[in-house]
């Protein structure tokens, strides 16, 4: 798979929480940093994402959201 996005990080899924339309996928990188992604329920189903799966987190600079904890 080739992507134009340069920020690609390997991670492990720690949890998947489904909402009505969107799902929250929590991941952890090898160094312990955590990344949370919000994607459609359909995408979670299509990709068959489940806890303990290895995934590639792809971050495009034009599609980054920030939240203050």
Q: How does this structure look, described?
A:
The protein has one helix spanning 41-47; strands spanning 7-18, 22-29, 34-40, 54-59. The chain has 69 residues and is mostly beta strands. The chain has one domain: OB fold (Dihydrolipoamide Acetyltransferase, E2P), CATH 2.40.50. The radius of gyration is 12 Å and the shape is globular. The model has no long low-confidence stretch (mean pLDDT 91).
Name of the CATH superfamily: RNA polymerase II/Efflux pump adaptor protein, barrel-sandwich hybrid domain
Q: What is the CATH topology assignment?
A: OB fold (Dihydrolipoamide Acetyltransferase, E2P)
- What structural class is derived from the secondary structure elements? mainly beta
Spatial sequence of strands, sheet with the most strands: 3-2-1-4
Q: What's the mean pLDDT score?
A: 91
The description of the largest β-sheet is:
4 strands, antiparallel
Keywords:
single chain, 69 residues, mainly beta, OB fold (Dihydrolipoamide Acetyltransferase, E2P), 4-stranded antiparallel sheet, 1 helix, 48% strand
Per-chain topology:
Layout lengths: L6 E12 L3 E8 L4 E7 H7 L6 E6 L10
Summarize the structure.
By secondary structure, the chain is mainly β.
